[in-house]
Design goal:
Aminopeptidase, 11 strands, alpha+beta, two-stranded antiparallel ribbon, 34% strand, single chain, disordered C terminus, nine-stranded mixed beta sheet, globular, EC 2.3.1.1
Length: 199
């Protein structure tokens, strides 16, 4: 997965770095997720599963404090799934979730995925991020890989949504060694409270 940093300045002056997660982030990510597991919002994740997901985990780092996390999980050759989208309770309402989703979408596009899906209860949020509701049976791989093992299999309250990836503001150039260079501009298109200051 491409390695890229995005620097964002939020209202109040806090600088947030969106980056790939590291092993040292996993205990904090697990605790963040567990808060939402306890109130029934999220399905549980073990620390072991998070360590296995490290190549696909992205975090929002607010000056050393993790403010959120999202996972981009490969389902099929050209289909990825957004999972484990979590924003720390002290950072909600600031556009952090949209920031993480938009970053994950750019990573998906760079990796060569044609579309990204999400199974979610937050239909309005994902609609704002450009996702559309689809029939659950159009994603059979999800069922056989995950749903069949889920404790909510027969009482699932999640809706399947997808975002088809289209042309984005990615500029391509060729450097003096003949290699293609990808420059990403205006990555973040979320709340006006956040402003990109460097890419």
């Amino acid at each position: 997965m491409p390695r890229r940093l995005v620097f964002i300045r939020f209202e109040g002056g806090a600088i947030v770095i969106v980056r790939l997660a590291t092993e040292s982030d996993v205990p904090v990510i697990h605790n963040m997720i567990q808060e939402y597991v306890d109130d029934g919002t999220l399905l549980p994740r073990t620390r072991e599963s998070l360590y296995r997901s490290l190549p696909s985990l992205v975090v929002a780092d607010a000056e050393g404090e993790l403010a959120g996390v999202v996972a981009l999980h490969r389902l099929e050759t050209h289909v990825a799934e957004i999972r484990t989208l979590t924003v720390a309770k002290g950072y909600q309402g600031q556009g952090m979730g949209q920031l993480l989703v938009q970053f994950a979408l750019k990573l998906a596009e760079d990796t060569g995925y044609h579309k990204v899906i999400s199974f979610t209860t937050q239909i309005e949020f994902f609609s704002r991020c450009g996702f559309s509701v689809i029939a659950r049976d159009t994603v059979p791989t999800k069922y056989y890989l995950d749903c069949i093992h889920c404790s909510k299999l027969f009482r699932c309250d999640e809706t399947a949504m997808e975002r088809v990836l289209v042309e984005s503001p990615v500029l391509h150039s060729v450097n003096r060694y003949g290699r293609q260079v990808i420059q990403l501009h205006d990555v973040v298109e979320c709340e006006p409270k956040a402003k990109a200051i460097q890419d």
